[in-house]
Amino acid sequence: MNDASRAQIAAAAPATSVWLSANAGSGKTRVLTDRVARLLLQGVRPERILCLTYTKAAAMEMQNRLFQRLGAWAMMPDDKLRATLAEIGEDAIDPPRLRVARTLFARAIEAPGGLKIQTIHSFCAAVLRRFPLEAGVSPGFTEIDDRVQARLIADLLDDLAAGPDADALDAVADLLSDEDGLRKLSRAVVGATDDFAQIWDWPAICAWAGIDPDLTQDRILAVALNGGEADLAKALIVHLDPKNQAQARLIARFEAMPWDAMTLVDLSALEAACLTMSGKKAGLPKAIANVDVRKAMGPDLVAAYDALAERVATARGLRLGLVTARRTHALHRFAAAFLPRYAQAKALRGWLDFDDLIRATRRLLTTENMAQWVLFRLDGGIDHILVDEAQDTSPAQWDIVKTLAAEFAAGAGARDDVARTIFVVGDKKQSIYSFQGADPQGFDRMRDHFATRLADVGLPFRSGELLYSFRSAPVILSLVDRVANGAGAPGVGPGVTHKAHFDTRAGRVDLWPVIPETPGREKLAWDDPQDIVSEDHHTSRLARAIAARIQSMIATGEPIPGKDGPRAVTAGDILILVQSRSPLFRKIIAALKAAGLPVAGVDRAAVSEPLAVKDLIALMRFLSLPEDDLSLATVLRSPIGGWSEAALFDLAHHRPMGASLWEALRGKADTWPDTVSMFHDLRDQADFLRPYDLLERALIRHDARLRLVARLGPEAEDGIDAMLDQALAYEAMEVPSLTGFVGWLEAGEVTVKRDLAKPNGQIRVMTVHGAKGLEAPVVILPDTAIRQRRGGTRIDLVTPLDGPCLWPRREDAIQ
């Protein structure tokens, strides 16, 4: 047995609590399923095992793997089953244990409530449905997704803008740089509801910030300026060298300074001129370093400049305190006006969002009067907790896990005769930072917490690593280690090690030369397409180079390692990963299609983006408004109508003056009987059927699905199914109407996700996050440069210890 297998067996040992750090490709899903299987083999009832995963897809994958394994055990001959059990670490396998192993599949299938392999949000929803009164939620609550929440927030912001608290909205709106910022801020405030349990007023905020509540702009400027700065600047400029980059910047800042009408914004610019703005000396006076310049200035002028820098440094603390206090006060005024309205709107509808599920469950499990009762009932039902993708668990979610496992470390509970364990696996290098409050540092913090608690009561606990990769060749892993050792993110840095299980496997890393950026082109006219990337653009050239390289690889049958030796590469062996669905992402797909290569298309898109969905939306627009000529023309030219461009032109061009396209089509019923019959049938039902039923009627009775898929390919199925799902969601939330549903689709941000886990003989183009957990023989990374965040407003709220919830300024903000 090799070291990699021994590490997996030790991690899956069912009697020991384990905290595992697992590299990508090290088989952590296998360890999870092995551990659950071994727990079941030890006699643990399936309903007493709780597996918490990060996504529904991960939960389904783990459940499928477990059922496949247990199902295979049920049918294996004795010798093979005995060998299989030995491979996962089970010994002393006598005939009674073999019989038990064969019954595990049926026991897992028939367990009350099924195996508890679910996301943290699904678990919280189940707990709240079990204890709704104790948690203070509606027994029949409905879970809402981000899209429904966004619509609710938008409606509440409209009401707030027209109400008596509009000034609270205006105060934060003045601090935002783009129109989408208010929605993001509202979402951030909702996510930090607990941090606004105490709304801080202006005096309290100023006291915390260490400033006088009566501090004003004029008082701060009086600290920095004494009235002679304009003359001082002129005298300084005479001695500065405009050919020196640093001195040229100082000249430009002094010349642009409105000395007689200064504001806090101007003071911030003066700070950039006189103070060090980064590093350990940030905020300290910055002397003019050039010795010759200082000599030419003379001691009096040098002393005057140094005195100015000292005054600016003193004023900077006051300015930052006042700006922070104003932002914080605006934030708390907004929260005080918005959050009660948001909570009331959800309560009236019986809705809970994702944050509510976590918040209510944590409150339920920690409230003194209720917690013991709830924990007693849950404690009687959970003996083993397994947490997957733990690096993406937020502090609030960790509180729930910690509370659930509190009785494990107490040594007693509802059933103190049972050995109970916690198993956690994660990898800080793979954290999706800030997503749903992910806290990669919490992985180590909680490991230390459980290690201490379990050690106090003498229970076994082991912290380990899975370093061996079953996925990559040594040469690739060595490159990964060298890159990671030069990075600085949590979990990435000196000491990162990957080991190849197949240490003799062949591998290769090709480093392409950088494609130089295309020089800026002429400024486009206002009516020119702004989102079209030219063919000479660097992204277009890179996309064509990738397509040409792949085309050459496939045409020449470039060899890659296979199970039975080298084999020729195919399109399904190739995976292209980018950072985001940027223009490069689209250009690569377009270039691959232009080269005649089989490509799977986009892995996810907005629900209204696929062509099949656009055609169905046009159909619904026409059905709700027959005079909408453009929508009818779209449907006729689409696969739904199947018309040619010439047929549509003839109908439109030869219709009577002033007649709509629908009137002209009805006059041609003899020529187009099937089309007219379909539209008549759908229009007759449009006022009586719900959007879902109307769509199904068009898709099934009138063969719209068949035609769309035949023309647009199998990927059209994903968009159509997502649209039908949204129709059901809309009908559950709103009074159904055709026009309302169209607006619902186009106003939201729902994405259509396609499962590209299996290549199906096609090249896959995905984002790095979207491809998490996948593998391919050939991986191309065309988008590896470090990007600067441009535009947009990122909202990050921070709550310091014993302080108010803060809205920090971006580094480049000066207000």
Figure out the total of helices. 33
Report low-confidence residues grouped into runs of 5 or more: 811-815
Kindly state the number of beta strands. 17
Radius of gyration: 32 Å
Structural class: alpha/beta
Helix share bin: 40-55%
| Oligomer status | single chain
Distance from N terminus to C terminus (CA atoms, Å) equals 63 Å
Q: Give the overall form.
A: globular
Q: What is the residue-mean pLDDT, rounded to a whole number?
A: 84
Q: Name the beta content range.
A: 5-15%
- The side-by-side strand order for the widest beta sheet comes to 3-2-6-7-1-8
The biggest beta sheet reads: 6 strands, parallel
Could you outline the blueprint of secondary structure elements for this entry?
Layout: H1 3-11, E1 17-22, H2 28-41, E2 49-53, H3 56-75, H4 78-87, H5 95-110, E3 116-119, H6 120-130, H7 132-135, E4 142-143, H8 146-161, H9 166-173, H10 181-191, H11 202-209, H12 217-224, H13 229-239, H14 245-256, H15 264-274, H16 291-349, E5 351-352, H17 354-366, H18 368-379, E6 384-387, H19 395-404, H20 406-410, E7 421-426, H21 441-456, E8 461-466, E9 468-469, H22 474-484, E10 499-500, H23 538-556, E11 559-560, E12 567-568, E13 574-578, H24 583-594, E14 604-606, H25 611-624, H26 629-637, H27 645-653, H28 661-667, H29 673-685, H30 691-701, H31 704-712, H32 716-733, H33 738-747, E15 751-753, E16 764-767, E17 778-780
Parallel strand pairs: 1-7, 1-8, 2-3, 2-6, 4-5, 6-7, 9-10, 13-16, 13-17
Antiparallel strand pairs: 11-12, 14-15
Helix pairs in contact: 2-3, 3-5, 6-17, 8-16, 9-16, 11-16, 12-16, 13-14, 13-16, 14-15, 15-16, 17-18, 17-19, 23-24, 25-26, 30-32
